[in-house]
Specification:
binds S-adenosyl-L-homocysteine, TIM Barrel, 12 helices, binds iron/sulfur cluster, 2 domains, 18% strand, alpha/beta
């Protein structure tokens, strides 16, 4: 029997990895999915309670894996019921998670990176620059450590999920697998600025909802606020979306950040309508959340409503998103972690043994 070589987190392991672990250690007669169902779906960290496994297998697993998740450093609550948590990655970088309760759903909004490389001009995370990619362990810790039940998961926190594709892909697998958290893929949404060819892989290899941050129908104007437009132009993003099967309840959303006197005119709405009317898309109009120091402003509510009606006239479904968690900087685009962590927070233990 091979001796365990490393003490690794079980959180983040998929069935294929675990089959290999069992095989190498000579336990192929036992079903590895029992451990994953026990740990992920039944949320039980006690490996000893899996009685169908012999004692020597349980001891082996306990030596090889720990069943902890990363713990948040601090939490904040908004007057609207939204909560936000600050985490510190294993290598010491800050990232945040929000939990947004609504009438009949609770949504966890998670981060895939500390900071972001993409540098969109309107976004607070973008202003922070890139610190590090998060691991599957760090991404999944956000859904399990906040101590809240949830029905939906959105990848709309810090970072660009498609820039950390392998981690995103495995996280989606664990969230949706029958041996994992068994969450319906239609209850998960990945928001992206459009990274190619990762977008195509997401569309073909997974069945979660996709949200594209569009923000202007004009390439030149989009490039002004989203630098990656030059490398991944909207026309190529749309061509990729045309290939992706959006069947049954799988949803394509196009996010349109509405900014006063910038992209909120009739000609924007009309050009947007003409550009995307052939797509099976729902348009989410996001009124800009004002960020001090940035030149953009929130739109007038009436302009937002007019914008929505122009899109409707193209036969498109469009809604105006209600901002949540603004007072604790948990709203869209406001997550920036604490740029520097205090000495006390940096030294706070994040794993409990
Ligand atoms: N990187 C991904 C996901 C994180 S951002 C993406 O860009 O899609 C999630 C959403 O918040 C994006 O649509 C983004 O454009 C939007 N956003 C960024 N800054 C914002 C702000 N100040 N007000 C409102 N939405 C903002
Ligand atoms: Fe990154 Fe998205 Fe913010 Fe752009 S909007 S900087 S891609 S997190």
């Amino acid at each position: 029997m091979e001796r365990p070589i490393a003490f690794t987190p079980l959180l983040g392991i998929n069935l294929k990895d675990l089959e290999q672990v069992f095989k190498v250690a000579g336990f192929e007669a036992y079903d590895p999915s029992r451990l994953l169902v026990h740990y992920y779906r039944q949320r039980n960290p006690e490996i000893d309670l899996i009685e169908v496994y012999p004692k020597k297998l349980r001891s082996y697993l306990k030596e090889k894996f720990h069943t902890q998740s990363l713990q948040p450093l601090i939490s904040e609550s908004s007057i609207d019921g939204t909560n936000k948590w600050l985490f510190k990655s294993v290598d010491g970088n800050p990232f945040e998670t929000a939990w947004i309760p609504d009438q009949n759903r609770q949504t966890v909004c998670i981060s895939t990176q500390s900071g972001c490389k993409f540098g969109c001009k309107f976004c607070m995370t973008g202003s922070l620059g890139f610190k590090s990619h998060l691991s599957v362990f760090e991404v999944l810790s956000q859904v399990v450590s906040i101590g809240k039940s949830f029905s939906h998961v959105v990848f709309m926190g810090m970072g660009e999920p498609l820039d950390n594709f392998e981690v995103l892909s495995r996280t989606l697998e664990i969230l949706t697998a029958p041996w994992g958290y068994s969450l319906a893929a239609r209850n998960i949404t990945v928001s992206t600025v459009g990274v190619l060819p990762a977008l195509e892989r997401l569309g073909m290899e997974h069945t979660c909802n996709i949200a594209i941050s569009l923000h202007s129908p004009f390439a030149e104007q989009r490039a002004e606020i989203i630098p990656s437009e030059k490398r991944y132009p909207l026309r190529d993003i749309i061509r990729t979306l045309e290939k992706i099967p959006f069947r049954r309840k799988r949803r394509l959303s196009l996010e349109y950040l509405l900014m006063k006197d910038f992209n909120d005119r009739y000609e924007h709405a009309a050009a947007l309508g003409a550009l995307i009317k052939h797509l099976p898309a729902h348009i989410n109009i996001i009124p800009y959340n004002f960020i001090p120091g940035k030149p953009y402003r929130a739109p007038d509510p009436q302009d937002a409503e007019n914008f929505r009606q122009v899109l409707n006239s193209y036969g498109l479904r469009a809604t105006i998103r209600k901002s949540r968690g603004y007072d604790i900087s948990a709203a869209c685009g406001m997550m920036a972690g604490r740029t520097t962590l205090s000495h006390e927070l940096l030294n706070k233990p994040v794993l409990k043994f």
